[in-house]
Specification:
By secondary structure, the protein is mostly helical. The protein has 2 domains: 144 residues, no CATH class; 36 residues. The chain is built from 8 helices and no strands. The longest helix has 33 residues.
Length: 187
């Protein structure tokens, strides 16, 4: 029999891990890839370069995040279910997980997705490395079943969220010769 303090401690720690995984998932999908690429190219930004690598192949990271979140949720649920029974565990765990493990972290992550992605990428990279024996084959399988389609191209609306995003895009376009200096000034 596990002591009540231990059950509460396990539940709180697992809920924190679930919140981190859920928040990172939203931040990762919502972050600005143009800004991340710009930061990665500036040099000296290890987290930006690492995040850029995962953004180039998102299925690797997302699979690990989902596996990690499921492990955290199981760790939160199993001790409470053993001690209190399934119905009591459901009454306690479900609202706590929904509020503190999903809704709040995802809402926070939507406000500053790039900043949060950069702050958490080292931890998530560690989790990916830890979970890669399971995550890598699952990512490969899901990629094979969900092969990209032509109509799945990302829209510019999804990456242009602020005037700063437009400035970075125009500056990069001018630097690469895609637009002339006069065109850059007009834009």
């Amino acid at each position: 029999m596990i002591a009540l303090f231990d059950i509460i401690l396990i539940f709180v720690l697992a809920l924190i891990f679930s919140a981190v995984f859920s928040g990172f998932e939203t931040a990762f999908y919502s972050c600005n890839p143009i800004r991340v690429r710009h930061l990665a190219q500036q040099g000296g930004k290890t987290n930006a370069r690492r995040l850029q690598r995962y953004l180039d192949r998102p299925e690797r990271m997302i699979t690990a995040v989902l596996i990690g979140n499921n492990i955290a949720l199981l760790a939160a649920t199993i001790p409470i279910t053993r001690e209190l029974g399934a119905v009591s565990a459901m009454i306690i765990v479900t609202p706590a997980v929904l509020l503190f493990g999903e809704i709040i972290p995802k809402s926070i992550s939507r406000t500053h997705p790039t900043r949060i992605s950069l702050a958490l990428i080292s931890l998530m990279h560690f989790c990916y490395r830890l979970l890669s024996p399971v995550a890598a084959p699952l990512a490969w399988i899901s990629k094979k079943f969900l092969a990209p389609r032509v109509d799945d191209e990302p829209s510019i609306r999804g990456i242009m969220r602020s005037p700063e995003d437009m400035r970075v895009l125009v500056d990069e376009s001018a630097d690469r010769g895609a637009i002339e200096h006069e065109e850059k000034e007009m834009i």
